[in-house]
Write a structure and sequence with these properties.
The complex is a heterotrimer of chains A (319), B (221) and C (292).
Chain A: H1 15-23, H2 29-66, H3 68-73, H4 86-117, H5 122-135, H6 139-157, H7 167-191, H8 195-203, H9 208-237, H10 240-245, H11 270-279, H12 283-318
Helix pairs in contact in A: 2-12, 4-7, 4-9, 4-11, 5-7, 6-7, 7-9, 8-9, 9-12, 11-12
Chain B: H1 5-38, H2 41-72, H3 76-103, H4 109-112, H5 116-142, H6 145-170, H7 177-210, H8 214-217
Chain C: E1 36-47, E2 50-61, E3 65-69, H1 76-82, E4 93-101, E5 104-105, H2 113-119, E6 120-123, H3 134-144, H4 151-161, H5 165-168, H6 181-193, E7 199-203, H7 211-224, E8 229-233, H8 237-243, E9 246-254, E10 261-270, H9 271-276, H10 281-287
Helix pairs in contact in C: 3-4, 3-6, 4-6, 6-7
Classes of the chains: A mainly alpha (319), B mainly alpha (221), C alpha/beta (292).
Amino acid sequence: MALTTPAGYSGTIVPDQVRRQLTGKRSDIAGRAFLALIISALTASVVILVVLVYDMVQLGEPILTGRLGDFLTGSLRSQPEASGVLQGLRGTFFIGVFTVVFAFPLGIGAAIYMEEYAHETRLTRFIDLSIRNLAGVPSVVYGILGLAIFVKALGDITGPEAQGRSVISAGLTLSVLVLPIVIITAAEALRAVPDSLREAGFGVGATRWEVTRDHVLSYAAPGILTGTVLALARALGEAAPLILVGAVTGFLSGGTSFSLETLDDRFTAMPIVITTWAGRPGADWEQATAAAIVVLLVVVLAANTFAILLRNHYEKKRG
Amino acid sequence: MLVRRSFQEELDQLRLQVELMGVKVDHNLERLRVVLADGDEVAAAAAVACDDEIDAMNVSLTERCYELLVREGPVASDLRFIVSVLRILSELERIGDLALRVVKLNPERRLWSSTAVTFDILVSMGEVAVEAYRDALRAWSAQDLELATDLATRVRVMDLHYERLTAELLRLRGDDAVRIATATLIAGRSLERIADHAAIIGARLRYLLTGDPDHLSAEVR
Amino acid sequence: MPDPTTTTTEAPVTDPTSATPGLHLDVRGSTPGGATVFDVRDTSVYYGDFRAVRDVNLTVKQHQITAFIGPSGCGKSTMLRCFNRMNDLIDTARVEGQISYHGVDLYDPAVNPVEVRRRIGMVFQKPNPFPKSIYENVAYGPKVAGAKGDMDEIVERALRGAALWDEVKDRLKESGMSLSGGQQQRLCIARAIATDPEVLLMDEPCSALDPIATGRIEDLMLEIKQQFTIIIVTHNMQQAARVSDRTAFFTTEVNEESDHRTGMLVEFAETDKIFSNPDDERTENYVTGRFG
């Protein structure tokens, strides 16, 4: 090995020796073991995912191939072969809408303020820390929050039957739940924008808002959109807060309409449908549950795909 | 932290080499005096050989200066130094040539040394020229501004000698008068020019030391 | 050809070839400069408690190129960024003393930094074009300034001014990032001059470029000097000697108590003087490269 000869190369250098030294391999056991470990981790994750999805698809296959149309347009019933997920889809749809309408603008706006406008003080550092902590709070707690605030407040506005336990409360609660995630990921994306870009904008005499709107946001868009994907997936999948906010688990009349007037009625959503059906005995209910899971997966996937397409569009523009 | 050490060493080397060349010129001026005084032929021959060396040194040192200009991109005092050296090298070479011109008159020495009056003036001029040059060389070695400034005054003494010389030459009569006058005039003119060039060396040194560009192009008249 | 007997020393010589015969002919086209654009008095810049540069006194004249040179950390970039209030973007930065622009105190609370930056443009060390098309890069400044008039014309004029028009006129819709380093920097120059500023601040504009690109930008600077006033920070001594009319040499001094280095202005004079016969020994040592 060259490093064992002191003070450089002296004397004649033999080509064979050089070849031996250059082509010899130093055994890198630790490196190779680590590589094997991370490959297996990746493989395991993918395999688990594939197995789960395959399992569900297989289990629910009769319904998915047999009576998909009825399944998607049907309502909650006591017989599994007549049940459908329409009410669940409707609830989930509105929850998604609420998340997009409330959590995204509020969250992104808050992130913009924190990263672009606020001066760094003890207060802002404290706020940043608090938001990070909020992201880790169990979803049940948000459910209680939703119950205590939204359900109670809306109880007066909504009809006597619902008493605030409507999809509005659910949407608001879940918006609040995912808000910290949106803020944190958007803030990270904004922080990743190189300062040279901002300097360039300021340098030609743009105001802070112009710099943010015209340059920073389009540069950070991919990162922000990724955050919204995560947030939306979380919002659509949480069950615990929905229970507390009063989603119906059994039979529900109505709750199928997509019109806005019915927003303050009692409701249900896909996660609740799934958990309810999963608790019922029998192979038929199993089938229905599996089919419902697949439907929810497809919905989330569709929403994510849209966001990813949007992200790719912005990434391309960034050049 | 001192950086560009090799450049600094090259500059120091250059200064010494210029001094060395200056010493060679000095030797030739000494031989000039000897030839003037007794017409020593050995000295004359040696002067011719030495002048070739002086010319060779001029060429190599000039090239070295250009190399440093290209390689090192000197500014401020470094640039003034190299520019001054280039000018002074040319002055030294001229002085060498002028000394040689006088030495080459040696074969006809019998002629122009016969007229005592003019010959005496020539010998005095020779002394002044050599002294002026020695002062210039001293000023360069010491990089002394005062010595450099004093050099300008010597030219006046030379002027007086030259005036007397031409006056005496006009009074010459006889068959060889023209030949004596021509040779004496050439010698006298050369000696006068040697003193001029020594004073110019002083001026270039003053440019180097003060940075005043007037000294860079000053003619001494 | 002006009459040699009546030339006054006040008139700024804009065409050196018509200068009075016998005067020192400056091939670089050194202009004696017109009105004073910036007047800096006893100015220090602090980052929190740390004094980055102290007690700067200098003036910048119109239609001249003024260079700031000095070792790393001597505050020359910090000083440059004071002229267009870019230091405002750093929370802890604080400027004491007075910097006036045509007599107006730049740091007066009533002064709007956005307006300052429209009249005093900046080119940065690493080319930073917007990740948008070439056209949009140049058009952005005038757009936010609310410029009326034909945008196509404004963009073409700026690109011509930056000696880039011929190379990009057929691909204005392409991304600015698709250009080479030297072209990107000229794009940034075009972007800066598009808002028709009076002053151009250049912070080591060529340090990320190869010698040919550098040469082109230096040529450009000498061309546009007639229209703008330029202040350039540079590490490259030869560049400062080549393009600038006046040079300010900054250095660092170690602060005894805090062990921090504070920058200070050592000497500010005509460029010819700084590079042939500077007054201060520290300047001499720096330009000859003896001490860093």
